[in-house]
Amino acid sequence: MRKSHFLTCAAIVAGFALGFGTRAYTFERHPEMVAAERALGNALGHLEHGAHDFGGHRVKAVQLTKEAIGEVQESYKFEK
User: pTM of the predicted model, to two decimals?
Assistant: First the structure.
């Protein structure tokens, strides 16, 4: 009886440990930066499918948005 009780408790503890370990591994460390990168990607898609040139401003906005996405991606290298 004691052996099965011990094994049950050990299984529960192992389950919690693995659960918390998985949560820590998959936890998004910088959710605001990730959200910003997604928003910039969405904006880039809209800009690239624009119907008019708007005097070159749309093209410039596409270029700057791509640079902004690159900067966000570069910022992940400084994550500590």
Answer: 0.64
